Amino acid sequence: MRELLEMIKNDSRFSVQYKDRTSDSFGIFLYDYPEFSGAEKNYDDQSVAGRLGSLIGKDISKGNLEITCTFSVLHPSFMAEIREIKRWLSGTGKLILSDSPDVYYAVQKVNYGSIERELRNYGRFASTFVCTPFEYLVEGKRECEIREVLFNPYCVCHPIYRITGEGVCTLQVNGNAMSANIGQNLTIDTERMMAYRSNGELQNTSITGDYENMYLKEGENEITITDGFDMKIVPNWGYDV
Questions:
Q1: CA gap 156, 211 in Å, rounded
Q2: How does DSSP assign 190-222, residue by residue?
Q3: If 0-12 CB within 10 Å is exposed, 13-18 middle and 19+ buried, where does residue 1 land?
Q4: Cα 220 from chain centre
Q5: What does the pLDDT look like over 2-51, one tens digit per residue?
Q6: Stated pTM of the model
Q7: Exposed/middle/buried for 158, CB within 10 Å: 0-12, 13-18, 19+?
Q8: How many angstroms separate the CA atoms of 39 and 37, rounded?
Q9: Please, what are the domains in the chain?
């Protein structure tokens, strides 16, 4: 209990933000800093007869990142408050940690751990956020002009291209082409590997080309689009984890 009271007195205590609400708004506090695990790369391994060990090929995928937070909960209706916290920590959303407010994690789901109840009104509650293995810059979610994203100072990123115009256009990124039938507007989301209109209608058959070829590499990039079309880019800048 003394540890909890010290955290309450400390204005610089660690907190998390999820789906636009903070742990402080619930009156709960992190017992310790979050624990990061997972995000391991999977490689194409091949065994060769008579050879010690296997041949390690290129990495083919990466596992999810898991961030576990243990919350200290002090409330006169302890279990009722736990239920409210679980409602908050549900579904997908953006997770922001208070010591890195410039980046967020894309949460795919939240797993609940055990509840350690030390007193009638006080206990600890663990939650594990299962995230895409990437740290996204908050700044990288804004719409940019082409000239603003030609240099990528971060890791390889998976941008969103929002194109307006009428007819067939060609988007070229670093010499790779993707053709699209726009029909007033079209969004090409390279991370989700989907194309859709502003009303959410899927338009995957309206494009030809590979989503992976539209990624923005580290450093200098070349991006062009057919004359007569307008395009904004959400770069999704960030860091590998």
A1: 13
A2: TTTTEEE-TT--B-GGGEES-GGGGPBPSEE--
A3: exposed
A4: 23
A5: 555 554 445 456 889 999 899 988 878 887 889 998 777 665 556 555 55
A6: 0.82
A7: buried
A8: 7
A9: 2-132 (2.40.30.200), 139-240 (2.60.120)
Which residues face 174 on adjacent strands?
Answer: none
CA-to-CA distance for 94 and 67, rounded, in angstroms? 12
- Residue that is written with structure tokens 């590997």 in the block: 193
- Whether the Cβ atoms of residue 190 and residue 234 lie closer than 8 Å to each other: no
Beta-strand runs (E) in 102-235 = 103-117, 122-131, 134-137, 151-152, 160-165, 168-173, 176-181, 184-189, 194-196, 207-208, 219-220, 223-225, 230-234
What CA–CA distance (Å, rounded) separates 169 from 230? 10
In the block, residue with structure tokens 């039938």: 181
- The number of C-alpha atoms within 13 Å of 45 and in the hemisphere containing its C-beta is 8
